[in-house]
Amino acid sequence: MKNQITPYKTARPQLDTFTLINCIHHKFPYNLIGHSAVLWKCEATGQLMIFESTTLNKFSMQSGVQLHAFGGWLNRYPGKVYARIPTFHNHADGIDHDHRRRRFAEAFIKAQLGSSYPDLKSRTGRLKLYLAAVDFNWFGVDLFQYKGKDTGIFCTMLDILFLQYCEIFDIRMNAAEFEPDDLRGNKQDFEENVCLFTDYADEIRLK
Predict the structure, then answer these.
(1) pLDDT given at position 145
(2) What is the pTM of this model?
(3) What is the mean pLDDT of the chain?
């Protein structure tokens, strides 16, 4: 069941790079917004890290794109935390796609660490977040897409860009049009654009 908590020690062996994390803060109004992130597992040490973009992490006192040990992050997060674990099926082309995805993941993380969050003091930065939550589809085209100059990366935008770079998600999709709720398994815009040979399981609750 979705609301039954799976202890972290039980879930830990299943969690790996590309696991999607979705969070619901226990305080208003943050509980209406949500937060998403993605996991990365260091192959050398087995350390599980969370890759995210936030307005301000009060523990690290950083904003923007950052990487933290997931166990400690999970203990501190003030709300519910869910995970969706991917399964990657074998290709028949002779290419080691698992190795390829993991090398891409490392390269993307190194390139994006420290990238800024959208500027919430500016109108265009706030508009970027607002339009991610507003969808008005006309014959399959979202008429309200962000076309401003803000270069910041918000949480779900980071997740989609990460998956696209690692060849897990359709590169044609606009990463800035996704919000945390889109990744929870109930929105076709995400489910239908995960690439072939990849399946994301239903979410499990970790906290």
Answers:
(1) 72
(2) 0.90
(3) 89
**Residues sharing a CB contact under 8 Å with residue 168, sequence separation 6 or more, in sequence order:** 18, 86, 101, 194, 195, 198
Superfamily of domain 8-205: endopeptidase domain like (from Nostoc punctiforme) (3.90.1720.10)
Please enumerate in sequence order all residues whose Cβ is within 8 A of that of 71, keeping only pairs 6 or more positions apart, or say none.
Answer: 8, 48
Least confident span in 99-108, 118-127, 134-143: 134-143
Q: Are strands 48-57 and 20-25 parallel, antiparallel or unpaired?
A: unpaired
Q: Name the residue among 193, 189, 181 with its Cα closest to residue 84.
A: 181
Q: How many residues does the chain have?
A: 207
Tokens of residue 111, six digits: 């390139």
User: β-strands 35-41, 86-88: how paired?
Assistant: unpaired
For the stretch 89-110, pLDDT in tens is 988 787 899 999 999 999 999 9
Cis peptide before 29, with omega less than 30 degrees from 0?
yes
CB 79 within 8 A of CB 25: yes
Q: How would you class 34 by CB atoms within 10 Å of its CB: exposed for 0-12, middle for 13-18, buried for 19 or more? A: buried
The dihedral built from the CA positions of residue 114, 74, 97 and 198, taken in this order, carries a sign that is: negative
